[in-house]
């Protein structure tokens, strides 16, 4: 079957490359700083892949996933400091809590189409920033929240290495889940929603339940990434955890890499994540970050809404075999069919 | 299973689109719904299929009250529909368009592959039956209007509805395809499916339907077999605006 | 007495919200676009007003002469050049991203040009206030309200009484039908966007009179404004105005027991409650159900 070999090539091979890269990177990284940058990039990769459960399958764009990650981080931190849970127990409980919270949020955001979802996603960031800054008796407010390290006594490079592998595992889990959904009947229904929601509904797909489910799954993975970040970094500040920028970076990464592809967001996260780390070193935090992010986001949306990588592959494919592009193929078949029809009608 | 409405009413602001419609379609037959432009046919379709919630009245299918239920509930109850300006999933292949009509029951079932043998075979069966099997792997957006119409019907058929509502199946298709659609409807009806068709092409309506309901100003003004409708003066009056 | 004072202040603030929400509603009505950059343009206008006063030493209100036509033009360009080029199927989502991107760029450029420092206009009449049945009302707040009220009235008259307003309303209500009767809906939509952005110019100037401004301030405005248009029913101008006054009042009153920061949450609570209970909004808005 040609499909099997094709899917092995497009899913299996990149998976292998990714696994090998994750396994080798920590030993190849020349210094702990590069390794810590690797952790940050993997964090972005998990966030972008988690985002793509909603964005890629249903076409609903969330600008608020940064807040879900922040919530996962704070929940993990608070469960450790206030409820005395063990670090990784807190991480799991936090993800479950955020997933549970995603139900009412999704209920409000997904019952009607499109615009409300985006509005709610942005509002989520703004309200959580407000709450976490003001409610200082619990959250530490602007002073931040210190999260105890899960591996006390571990040296810094080893700490980075451990978290690099943890993030790598989480990324593979998220990718495997996405892949499982992508090839499933459930995923077919979700993609139908992306294409035409009314039509999907009229074919018997319970669109609201589907959207809500996938939003909850997405929130859980996002919260896991956020919680892991809290354990790794050890210090949470509401301004960074509930920043609109986080959400926009995630969207930029996913769109850049291509949302219809399993590995698109990972690729986008590597490109944008590495660029972000590089510019932070070279230029520090400047307002021009905002300008560049905005500009890139605008350019991608205007000119390559399917993602840069898919657009480039399509271009290469077009150049390589001009003769039998898919559109022509069908038009030719179409003509042949019409001819047959005419002849059938005549005889 | 009989599809009927009782006292259905829908107003948009001050405009009453459907005004207390009592309509009963004959099960196992090809029913047609005709009427001048703006007589409320499409709004009626949308109310029946749950795309719009009616203000008053009820929609009943067999012994189930489907009034105001979500479209997917109505679809799962066995009422399938096509859209006036035919709608397919543009970036999905023909096979996927048809497979999208598979309704998983439960989580385990939903996580199984969408391209399982039995279902893919059924999807290809419908594509073959409608004469578009050669386009199985083509994306819907690259297909011609007529092909998309057939594809949309294939998707609806895949869901095995007992009753199928077609909104202007003849709209914008060439004469050869028109004949084929007419034949298809008769064949599918002979296999036991009920049809309800909104259509402007009177030749098609008169040649394929068993029962015709005439709409005017949001309510039925006549109902009966084609010969009877053809002879009805009220119908002529509605069309000529007298 | 404190309550009465808060009611007055709430209504004055509500007027400004109403004007800005009217702009957002216009965009949404015309193209189903949630214009995230609206409040970024608002802050941009406020900065231009501050700059006029700071560098040129003239009254910030005079900056309106430049900013209103400038923003009108920018609105037309934004609609014609960017938004109308997006694919209709994904317009709602992609337009949000475009306007979000513009908001980021404006915020970044403001930070680059004027630094992140907080700015405030020093006016001769800045501290003047007068007594209204026992409530102390700052003159600048009244000026801001008057500016908003006059602009809203002008907008209303334009929409209801002029040929252009008729064309714009026709375009909003039924684009195809409008085209059939000979309206150039594309151009009308562009002008509609210009008009919407002009409200941000007026609002920004009004805002600059008595508010400390900084580049990221626009996030504090877009949240409440989005809440207002959802509560009012997406696409309904009177609904937005009613919701603006109501929520402005609620915010002002809640400041007494809760403080300024927590009082802001009233917008988000109202937003979530509306979407959960009555997604089409509480004041009409027939468009909301599907978008």
Précis, in short:
The complex is a heterotrimer of chains A (347), B (242) and C (291). Chain B is an alpha/beta fold and 242 residues long. Chain B has helices at 41-48, 71-77, 94-99, 107-111, 117-129, 145-158, 175-190, 202-208, 226-230, 233-240; strands spanning 3-12, 15-24, 30-34, 56-61, 64-65, 79-81, 163-167, 194-198, 211-216, 219-224.
Number of helices of chain B: 10
Structural class of chain B: alpha/beta
The CATH topology of the largest domain in chain A is ABC transporter involved in vitamin B12 uptake, BtuC
The proportion of residues in beta strands of chain A is under 5%
Mean pLDDT of chain B: 91
Name the helix and strand elements of chain B from N-terminus to C-terminus, one letter apiece: EEEHEEHEHHHHEHEHEEHH
Shape of chain B: globular
Report the portion of residues of chain B in β strands: 15-25%
Mean pLDDT of chain A: 88
Uncertain segments of chain A: 323-332
- The coarse overall form of chain A would be globular
Percent helix of chain B: 25-40%
CATH class of chain B: Alpha Beta
Rg over alpha carbons of chain A = 22 Å
* Multimer state: heterotrimer
Calculate the terminal CA-CA distance of chain A, rounded to whole Å: 39 Å
């Amino acid at each position: 079957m040609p499909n099997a070999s094709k899917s092995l090539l497009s899913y299996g091979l990149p998976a292998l490359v990714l696994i090998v890269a994750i396994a080798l990177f920590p030993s190849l990284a020349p210094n702990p700083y590069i390794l810590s940058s690797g952790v940050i990039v993997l964090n972005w990769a998990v966030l972008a892949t988690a985002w793509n459960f909603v964005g890629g399958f249903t076409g609903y764009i969330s600008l608020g996933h940064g807040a879900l990650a922040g919530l996962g981080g704070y929940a993990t931190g608070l469960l450790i400091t206030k409820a005395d849970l063990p670090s990784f127990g807190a991480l799991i409980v936090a993800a479950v809590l955020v997933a549970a919270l995603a139900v009412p949020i999704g209920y409000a955001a997904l019952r009607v189409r499109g615009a409300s979802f985006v509005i709610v996603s942005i509002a989520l960031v703004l309200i959580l920033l407000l709450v976490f800054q003001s409610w200082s008796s619990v959250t530490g407010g602007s002073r931040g929240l210190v999260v105890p390290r899960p591996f006390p006594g571990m040296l810094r490079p080893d700490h980075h290495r451990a978290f690099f592998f943890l993030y790598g595992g989480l990324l593979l889990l998220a990718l495997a889940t996405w892949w499982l959904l992508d090839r499933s009947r459930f995923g077919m229904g979700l993609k139908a929603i992306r294409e035409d929601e009314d039509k999907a509904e009229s074919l018997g797909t319970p669109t609201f339940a589907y959207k809500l489910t996938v939003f909850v799954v997405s929130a859980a993975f996002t919260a896991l990434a956020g919680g892991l970040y809290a354990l790794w970094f050890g210090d949470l500040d509401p301004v960074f955890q509930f920043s609109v920028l986080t959400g926009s970076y995630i969207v930029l990464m996913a769109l850049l890499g291509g949302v219809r592809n399993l590995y698109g967001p990972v690729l986008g996260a590597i490109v944008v994540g590495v660029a972000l780390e590089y510019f932070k070193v070279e230029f520090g935090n400047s307002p021009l970050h905002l300008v560049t992010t905005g500009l890139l986001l605008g350019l991608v949306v205007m000119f390559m809404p399917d993602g840069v990588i898919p657009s480039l592959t399509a271009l290469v494919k077009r150049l390589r075999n001009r003769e039998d592009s898919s559109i022509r193929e069908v038009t030719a078949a179409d003509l042949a069919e019409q001819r047959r029809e005419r002849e059938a009608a005549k005889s | 299973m009989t599809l009927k409405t009782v006292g259905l009413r829908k107003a948009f602001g001050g405009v009453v689109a459907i005004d207390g419609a009592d309509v009963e379609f004959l099960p196992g037959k090809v029913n047609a719904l005709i009427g001048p432009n703006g007589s409320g046919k499409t709004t009626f379709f949308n109310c029946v299929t749950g795309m719009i919630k009616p203000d008053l009245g009820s929609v009943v299918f067999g012994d189930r009250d489907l009034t105001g239920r979500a479209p997917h509930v109505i679809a799962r109850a066995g009422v399938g529909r096509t859209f006036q300006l035919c709608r397919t999933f543009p970036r999905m292949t023909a096979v996927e368009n048809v497979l999208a009509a598979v309704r998983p029951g439960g989580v385990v079932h939903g996580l199984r592959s969408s391209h399982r043998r039995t279902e893919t075979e059924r999807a290809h069966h419908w594509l073959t039956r409608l004469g578009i099997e050669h386009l199985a792997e083509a994306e819907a957006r690259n297909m011609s209007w007529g092909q998309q119409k057939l594809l949309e019907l294939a998707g609806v058929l895949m869901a095995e509805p007992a009753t199928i509502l077609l909104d202007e199946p003849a709209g914008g298709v060439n004469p050869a395809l028109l004949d084929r659609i007419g034949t298809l409807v008769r064949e599918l009806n002979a296999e036991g499916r009920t049809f309800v068709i909104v259509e402007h092409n009177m030749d098609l309506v008169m040649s394929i339907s068993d029962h015709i309901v005439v709409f005017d100003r949001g309510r039925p003004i006549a109902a009966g077999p084609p010969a009877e409708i053809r002879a009805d003066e009220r119908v002529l009056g509605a069309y000529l605006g007298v | 007495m404190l309550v009465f004072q808060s009611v007055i202040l709430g209504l004055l603030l509500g007027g400004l919200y109403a004007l800005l929400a009217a702009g957002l509603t216009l965009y949404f009505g015309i193209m189903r676009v949630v214009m995230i950059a609206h409040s970024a343009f608002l802050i941009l206008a406020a900065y231009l007003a501050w700059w006029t006063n700071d560098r040129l030493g003239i009254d910030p209100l005079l900056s309106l002469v430049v900013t209103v036509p400038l923003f009108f033009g920018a609105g037309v360009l934004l609609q014609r050049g960017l938004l109308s080029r997006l694919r209709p199927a994904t317009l709602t989502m992609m337009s949000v991203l475009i306007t979000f991107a513009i908001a980021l760029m404006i915020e970044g450029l403001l930070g680059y040009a004027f630094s992140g420092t907080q700015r405030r206009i020093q006016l001769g009449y800045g501290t003047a206030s007068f007594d209204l049945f026992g409530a102390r009302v700052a003159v600048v707040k009244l000026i801001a309200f008057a500016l908003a009220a006059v602009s809203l009235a002008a907008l209303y008259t334009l929409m209801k009484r002029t040929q252009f307003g008729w064309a714009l309303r026709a375009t909003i209500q039924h684009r195809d039908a409008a085209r059939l009767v000979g309206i150039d809906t594309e151009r009308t939509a562009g002008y509609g966007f210009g008009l919407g952005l002009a409200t941000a110019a007026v609002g920004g100037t009004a805002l600059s009179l008595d508010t400390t401004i900084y580049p990221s301030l626009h996030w504090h405005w877009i949240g409440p404004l989005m809440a207002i248009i959802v509560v009012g029913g997406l696409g309904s101008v009177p609904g937005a105005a009613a919701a603006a006054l109501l929520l402005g009042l609620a915010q002002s009153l809640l400041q007494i027991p809760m403080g300024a920061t927590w009082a802001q949450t009233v917008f988000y609570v109202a937003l979530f409650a509306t979407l959960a209970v009555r997604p089409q909004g509480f004041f009409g808005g027939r468009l909301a159900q599907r978008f």
